[in-house]
Specification:
Helix content is 33%, strand content 29%. It is an alpha/beta fold. The chain has a single domain, classed as P-loop containing nucleotide triphosphate hydrolases (Rossmann fold). The strands form two sheets. The protein has a six-stranded mixed β-sheet with strand order 6-7-8-3-9-10. The chain has a four-stranded antiparallel β-sheet with strand order 2-1-4-5, covered by helices on one side. Helix 7 links the parallel strand 7 and strand 8.
């Protein structure tokens, strides 16, 4: 069994003009650690594809299996997403008046071993992503857009999700950091809306005529 599998997935959405089928009996398989670029002439199809990958909307029929789990049958999807999926886009994820470090230490009590371990993990990850100590301790709202997006990436990676999803990332340097990190740590990545980084993919997923073509 592949790390990610779509088996006979059908998804219909009711639009203003009526019921539209975006996927019909679609099949797909992706091996663990693969970096895939998703493309389609339909932006709606891409958005729906990522929503189903993140288990925020279920298919009408068929199975989506990730690491052996049929996510269409998962009861607590929020908990599953938190364990499994890191989703980077242009939305803010952090408390703006706190620093990156403070955001990542929420829920950890100072003076405990867990706090010290978490703080060491934060500093190691920050060094790997090129964040200085000053940037790590600056409030989110005091950072420019580049470092705010980098802060979001740090927040996602600290939880070590096996799958990274990324859409609408306009900064090439951020996408390069994400892909380099994923290659080093053998994470599975699906990304879209980044033509500047399309050539970095190991395979291409094309959504067309209700089907999924992987090459």
């Amino acid at each position: 069994m592949s790390f990610i599998e779509w088996n006979h997935v059908t998804k219909r959405i009711r639009l203003e003009e009526g019921l539209h089928t975006f996927f019909h009996e679609a099949n797909m398989s992706i091996e663990e650690g693969t970096i895939s670029y998703v493309k389609s002439e339909s932006e709606d199809a891409i958005s729906l594809f990522f929503a189903m990958m993140a288990a925020t909307t279920p298919p009408n029929s068929g199975d989506i299996i990730i690491d052996g789990t049929d996510i269409t049958a998962v009861q607590d999807r929020f908990a599953w997403r938190k364990r499994t999926i890191g989703y980077l886009n242009d939305d803010g994820l952090l408390v703006p008046d706190r620093s990156i470090r403070q955001n990542l230490l929420l829920g950890f009590d100072p003076g405990t071993n867990e706090y010290d371990v978490r703080n060491a993990q934060i500093e190691q990850l920050a060094e790997e992503l090129g964040l200085s100590a000053e940037e790590l301790d600056e409030s989110i709202e005091g950072l420019d857009s580049h470092y705010q997006l980098l802060a979001n990436l740090t927040f996602i990676l600290i939880s070590k999700p096996p799958i990274l999803l990324a859409t609408h990332i306009k900064e090439q340097t951020i996408m390069t950091l994400l892909l380099d990190y994923a290659k080093k740590h053998r994470l599975t990545v699906l990304y879209a809306d980044a033509p500047y980084a399309e050539s970095e993919a190991q395979q291409y997923i094309t959504l067309s005529d209700g089907l999924i073509h992987v090459e």
